[in-house]
């Protein structure tokens, strides 16, 4: 197993850089389409506080669906297992992330918290039990990352809201089955703000180290229980990479969650959290170069969980 | 982390034994319905050749879909990655194991090798490149387990064939898309024989230790490459437990494959392979008590991959 | 062929009256559940102005989906065929009336104007080209029926709106595909008002005589062209009775449109329009006794189009 | 309403002849692809024995799915309504003619007798109650058409059988649900023979006049009851033209059944049966020029049932 250092990370980025020209930047909202297509960055954080980085690791981007892991983590602290898992499942969907087909056939209970429907249910649950869900998430992320200036990108949040028809359809469909309790428009606003969190790779790696550290931050602050950390990692490996989770586990072998902003957060349990960023996506919606660099890293470190 | 010994395994079996009364024994074919509902066994094998066991670990049963891991392993030795994965995918299906809906929508390419459609494609590929696929599999299993008297249960195989309409439909549908090359009836016969392999927990644990040993048997014989072993483990964790893979990963956190005969094979990478058996199934089709004992074991050993 | 008179209609009602105890009154909104379950009425209107009636033919009820024929008729006068039929199809759906599955698979284009999705697209189109779509529809219905006091039942309309989650999901899904142009909430309000038109059998029969009279009212006022009248009749026979159109054509053999309020309007081309009402529904959502009386009438008059 | 004569039919054929260049000849089996693409014919038969014809009305072709009406008619004489309709439905499918999706979701009961699944169930039923189902159908067709030399095109039948994977999948899927009783291969052979009946427009028009004559041939021989004739016409209008029944009813307004050989049989109840033939198909699978000539004829004769 290779030793980690910034030079190794630079080498890996160089290997995958040609792929940045091949992916397709998300353009379903104008605000995302403006991102620099060739950006490429990586950062790694360990439970004992070390950080490695390379490339555009200090440029902030829209974390998008990576935020689904954060909202689930918060929900786990406010709801019992019984309450939470009767409203959202734990199984891979075998469907595109925003499909309504399965949701209707399964009576409004989303397959897992990492597809849009599931994340919307989680946000609906937070809306019920948090007094100011957007402000609260900001506080949490600032605490996790140690960066007090993290913000929502309001330009992105507004743009998402303007193109929110599909997510509104999902929310209303769940409401028709009694699985959505708050005002649709209000919850969508919260959901889009979470998606519009603007963070860089270093901040992301640092924020998610609790999943590689038995549920605690590098400073030892407990966020969730050790068991819950294992459970989130399990959900990420089966459902974290949209309809490409199987391929990703096969190639990389780490629990991970991607976002259409081009970010991926990956976990080596008990060892480290890794954030990569490259906006060009494969046809499933996962960062093309980001996945490739994680695959190389997995080989070099022998860090597959398998 | 607790030390392993037979007494610990006995204790765990005692804890889950009440569950054996709650599951439902598979009865879609008469031959399977005859099995003793309260049977309960476990065996563990390590790369260095150790064996622990408890309960009905020496009673043979029908391994059913556990054989899908064996046929995939053999296929990996006879086909290149390109050849194999263009005919079967690597993603969870989000559907019952024998559904045709997704198969039609995705033009006859099964989602993964562990649902029936995928295993049938793999058997079709073996039919093409093995001269006597049933005899060959027997030889392989006898070699892996070190038991030269392992046999197909011809009563079960015949019974399966008599109730094979759904699998025939799946095979013909794939043929209509050009993804099935040999005689349907011939391949079904092979497939049902593989399912009808009769093995006990000790034999199973020993046979699958190559997945916990970089692809090699405890005697050091290479079966597949280290990378292929990791890849199969990845496929098992995302797709090995029918439409309950997410829940299983969340509760147990090990790559595993189940069969409707009530067996489960689970892998702790680089450490051990575990075989459990209890015929009562949950509504998804996985052994109820078997899953529970793996969950307890995972907790006691701290052996989740996450 | 029997001669029509009120006594014959009374006889037919008597024959089917026992069925009124067997159907299930729609209760998805409280306002509809309040209706008298055993009501039973029929009225027939001819192009030359004759009216026959029996039973509760003068009690108003909520016409519900029967209004979908009216909104389509109005849309045909405001849009060219090309404009209209590129946004909604002409095929039976083979699905429940409020399903989103097919709508997603077919990219937001509803199968026909008589399922909810299709009717919502038609209302969206009317919203674009009518200045006051609710007031305009009232004027049209008053003109067609010759009753100037026809009103929306605001209690029902409000109740529908409060339980509108499924229809909102449908509208938003179409919006996500670009097939819905106006404000969802506004169009839903219009749609629910149309459904909440309160009319009796006589008023209904009189209103729809244009479909039995080459597109003209009994007074000779052209509403739509003769060809358009034939086309609407064709759409009704293939798609007018929810997912029971085939059975209805087989039993009754008339173009017809039903509503969950228990009303059905049926057409004998060039001869008469028939309105029946009985609130008890079969499992598809069509009036149980209403269908039966139309079947008897069809036999007595030899009036199947086949 | 125009008077019928051969000259009128010639004129109509001339009008639609350019369309023969636009359709796509069925090529899923080699035997069908060999047909002359520009063939165009029409024949009309009346209950009183008159025949009109134009174009290639005397060239035989493969009647394909038109035979589904014949097999249903025979089944109606051998089974009670209860027996028949518990095994096949009466509703349009809203799906391609050979889809398995709906069939699985609806537990192996086909939507109607005119999609492949439904026709296969009907053939399975005939296999049970007819002693020599292929010979018997030949006798019936020779009687109906008055042509004792009508034959199966064995070249086509064999070709169908060689490409029968999709239909085999459908049959096996129904068998898995208990809705298919005889040997799959045997029934497929019968089914393909029926599809391979070789007839010309005159023979077809004459054969189907019973549907325009209260169930009797022009010679007064009762084939089915008057009610059954009406019911078959109803099924044809809702489900006879694959997934284009709605459009066909809207344009032409006649009960009809098409085949991928390019034939269509259409009925004007109590007046005439019309057979058209042109091998070029639209994207749904219906004859392009054939549909167009029926539309023109409907306008000229005012013969829409609506």
UniProtKB/TrEMBL annotation, chains A, B, C, D:
Alphabetic keyword roster: Acetylation, Hydrolase
Cross-referenced InterPro entries: Beta-lactam/transpept-like (IPR012338), Glutaminase (IPR015868)
Catalysed reactions, semicolon-separated: L-glutamine + H2O = L-glutamate + NH4(+)
Molecular function terms, GO-annotated: glutaminase activity
Residue numbers binding substrate: 65, 116, 160, 167, 191, 242, 260
EC number: 3.5.1.2
Enzyme class: hydrolase
Pfam families documented for this protein: Glutaminase
GO BP term (any one): glutamate biosynthetic process
Statement: the UniProt record of this protein carries the keyword Hydrolase: yes
UniProt keyword Plastid present: no
Xref: Gene3D superfamilies: DD-peptidase/beta-lactamase superfamily
Family classification: Belongs to the glutaminase family.
Self-association state and partner proteins as the record states: Homotetramer.
Name of this chain's protein: Glutaminase
Organism: Candidatus Pantoea deserta
């Amino acid at each position: 197993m290779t030793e980690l250092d910034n030079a190794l990370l630079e080498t890996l980025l160089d290997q995958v850089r040609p792929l940045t020209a091949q992916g397709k930047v998300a353009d379903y909202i104008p605000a995302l389409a403006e991102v620099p297509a060739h950006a490429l960055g990586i950062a790694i954080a360990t439970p004992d506080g070390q950080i490695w980085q390379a490339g555009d690791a200090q440029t902030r981007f829209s974390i998008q669906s990576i935020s689904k892991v954060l909202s689930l983590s918060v929900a786990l602290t406010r709801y019992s297992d019984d309450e939470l898992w009767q409203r959202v499942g734990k199984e891979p969907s075998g469907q595109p992330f925003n499909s309504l087909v399965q949701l209707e056939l399964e009576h409004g209970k989303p397959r897992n918290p990492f597809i849009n429907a599931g994340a919307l249910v989680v946000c609906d649950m937070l809306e019920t039990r948090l007094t100011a869900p957007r402000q609260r998430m900001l506080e949490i992320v600032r605490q996790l990352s140690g960066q007090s200036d993290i913000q929502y990108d309001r330009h992105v949040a507004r743009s998402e809201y303007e193109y929110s028809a599909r997510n509104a359809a999902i929310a209303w469909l769940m409401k028709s089955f009694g699985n959505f309790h708050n005002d649709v428009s209000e919850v969508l606003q919260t959901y889009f703000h979470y998606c519009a969190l603007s963070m860089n790779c270093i901040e992301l790696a640092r924020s998610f180290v609790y999943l590689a550290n038995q549920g605690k931050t590098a400073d030892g602050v407990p966020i969730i229980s050790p068991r819950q950390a294992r459970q989130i990692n399990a959900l990420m490996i089966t459902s974290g990479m949209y309809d490409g989770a199987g391929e990703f586990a096969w190639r990389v072998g780490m629990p991970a969650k991607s976002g259409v902003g081009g970010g991926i957060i990956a976990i080596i349990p008990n060892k480290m959290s890794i954030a990569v960023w490259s906006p060009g996506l494969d046809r499933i919606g996962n960062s093309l170069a980001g996945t490739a660099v994680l695959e190389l890293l997995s080989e070099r470190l022998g860090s597959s969980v398998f």
